[in-house]
Amino acid sequence: MRSLIDFNSGWLFEGKDEVRLPHNALDLPFNYFDETAYQRVFSYEKRFTVDPAWNGKEIAIVFDGAMANAKVSLNGEAIAAHKDGYTPFEARLTGKLKDGENVLAVTIDGSENPEIPPFGGQIDYLTYAGIYREAWLRVTAPVYVGNGKVETPDALADRKTVRARIDLANPQDLPISGTVVATIKDAAGKTIATTDALIEGDSVDVALNGLAGISLWDIDSPTLYTLALNLETPHGRDQAQFRFGFRTAEFTTDGFKLNGRALKLRGLNRHQSFPYVGYALGRSAQERDAEILKRELKLNMVRTSHYPQSHYFLDRCDELGLLVFEEIPGWQHIGGEAWKDESVENIRRMITRDWNHPSIVIWGVRINESQDDHDFYQRTNTLAHELDSTRQTGGVRYITDSEMLEDVYTMNDFILGQEEWGGNRPRTPLRPQQEVTGLDRVVPYMITEYGGHMYPTKSWDQEQRQAEHVLRHLEVMNAAYGDPQIAGCIGWCAFDYNTHKDFGSGDRICHHGVMDMFREPKFAAYAYISQCEPEDEVILKPVTFWARGERNIGGVLPLMILTNCDEVELAYGNNAPKRFTPDREAFPHLPHAPVVIKREHLTDEELGLWGMSWEDATITGYLDGKPVKTVNFIADPIAHELEVAPDTTEIGAEGDTVRVMIRALDQSGKKLPFFAEPVSIEVSGAAERLGPGLVPLRAGSTGFWLKSTGKGPITVTVTSERLGRAVTTLTAS
Ligand code: GAL
Predict the structure, then answer these.
(1) Could you tell me what percent of the chain has a pLDDT over 90?
(2) What are the angstrom distances between the C-alpha of 260 and each of 247, 357, 556?
(3) Which of the residues 35, 58, 369, 475 is marked catalytic?
(4) Residue 449 is among the residues annotated as catalytic for this protein
(5) pLDDT level of residue 140 (50, 70, 90 thresholds)
(6) Which of 172, 393, 443, 522 is the most buried (most CB within 10 A)?
(7) CA separation (Å) from 232 to 60, 140, 205, 265?
């Protein structure tokens, strides 16, 4: 049987510090840093002793990901190299281990080597150096299960079929024979069906037919199954499992269909980066991001811009029912022939790693926003189809009239805002498909970016700008919902991210997220959140900080209220309350149009003018005539309290991480949007703080991650000169 041993602890970094993987080679400040600082070589070393139980076994170290150009040696001898920073690689140790202590050394090179995608041009994101994903020691029989591809060819039939191709790994080139027993199990581990096959070569095909009582994988009921394999050869046994789901997914000329049912895709792009530690947060942070996208932002789609992301993230997308567009590394630039060869290999590495994820419904096989390149993109498309005939390809471009080599024309349509550059076109949320493609026919079509640099918005920006930010996201979504030829839209982007000097606000941040880097929502987040059904959650989010003088000329009008209620009541001061309904005229296609209270809806007396007293207000959402949610605004907020809110208080002991949010609240418990005073953060007990200990609040909040260092209680103490001290305890076990 195989064992997969955690190989993350006890690495010596740069010959001096003991570190645990995932590891960021050089932590960065929040902003205004020099991004060339990590663009150099770093070294890691791990000493370990051979276990006699490994005798006669195949031994490999599996790295889930390291940035970049990793070179691995064992006891001074080079044994593996891997250029790509986003896919796993293995270093085979069999036959090379010596008795007693062995030294495994890894160098990674954070410099932007133009030979390696995505490098060679400008890139609007950072590629933080480090062994930033987990590493494992894998011990198997000499012949073992290498990979497996599970397919469900008739997922919608009453009686279903599973077909799988199992690739055997046989690095010693031994003569192989024996059997594979393949068992399908449901999520509770119950056996659904089983079969066996004789081994005749280095891959085995199995088929299980007539499967009854199977549930489909869908966004609201993401039922998963496992194909468990028992391999027996004269060289020993192995066990492996592959998780999969039964579903169909198709981009058609009239939209996207999941299990044959039309589904408008509503998504955001995700970069896998975090403040200070770059890419180097492990399982729980990866999973949490998927949860935020699905459960908080209420999305049904995410694009892993612009590279393959952690398998923990993708696993959680499978479990949550969050669809994924996954793509190869790149940003606008296409390099020379060797670079292209490497990029084609990136297709292979991405697809063979991820082909069993039911959440992934399309492969991105172009360099994001690159120019057409017939031969190159014919190669990437052909390979993607050869490796996986069950999924369509897309390739993200911003150019019009681009050669359609993919199955889906996937377009970054940044037309909204172009009117600010001049030209005759009035404000337009999205262009018609055929204007973009230049084709004489309709093709499967999806919007993969909009927003972003067209309207960067910080969480501490003026309320009016933030309202415009909201409006733009709503307008594009409304257009996508209204056009049956559009499969859906994936906005730019979920979270603010650190970037190169050539992009962003000069502070090395693209403030493009609907959430900030700590995943704290801006108002624009609620453009998406409010599209969920009230049975899921009742949403009532007025786009205002509620102040007399934050907007130009004063007041809060026009007041957009993002909601899935069917009526909203505003009660201001002592005036009689007034009711308003969603603005379906401006947003006819959105599942839930916002309520927009305009100047003409209220008299000057009803909301007052500059110079008049500013009053409290209550906004109430109604469904079917019944009040279902209330938001109270107070007119005289005062800094009152410091909130320290960890995502969870129970974490794992082995380097597990958790986000802790810190917020300054007023006397009614609302965040103070312009509170910017510093707080100090101390972490004691079984964890360390990631990031600095003295930070300002930004837009009334900040956050940090802590990382466990063992078992036991953890105390977080946050101190503000004005608001005093807030203490929270967690436990690592
Ligand atoms: C796109 C690009 C993204 C990001 C975005 C900002 O051109 O694909 O990576 O830079 O612009 O709006």
Answers:
(1) 98
(2) 9, 19, 45
(3) 369
(4) yes
(5) very high
(6) 393
(7) 20, 12, 15, 44
Cβ–ligand 1 contact at 410 (below 6 Å): no
Residue 349 to residues 134, 202, 227, 345, Cα–Cα distance (Å): 17, 19, 21, 6
Phi, psi at residue 303, to the nearest 5°?
Answer: -110, 130
Backbone angles phi, psi at 524, to 5 degrees: -60, -25
Q: Does 133 have pLDDT greater than 90?
A: yes
- Active-site entry in 58, 287, 449, 567: 449
Q: Which two tokens stand for residue 537?
A: 């959650």
- Is the pLDDT at 661 greater than 90? The verdict is yes
pLDDT score, position 1: 81
Q: Is the bond preceding 22 in cis, omega lying within 30 degrees of 0?
A: yes
Q: Which of 415, 449, 496, 510 is the pocket-test mutation for ligand 1 (most atoms within 8 Å of CB)?
A: 449
End-to-end CA distance of the chain: 28
pLDDT higher than threshold 90 for residue 422: no
Q: Which residues touch 514 (CB under 8 Å, ≥6 apart)?
A: 268, 297, 473, 491, 493, 494, 521, 522, 524, 525, 527, 528
- What pTM value is reported for the model? 0.98
- Compute the distance from residue 453 Cα to the ligand 1 centre, in Å: 7
Predicted confidence (pLDDT) per residue in 241-258, tens digit: 999 999 999 999 999 999
The preferred substitution site among 412, 413, 490, 502 for testing ligand 1, maximizing ligand atoms within 8 Å of CB, is 412
449 lines ligand 1 (CB under 6 A): yes
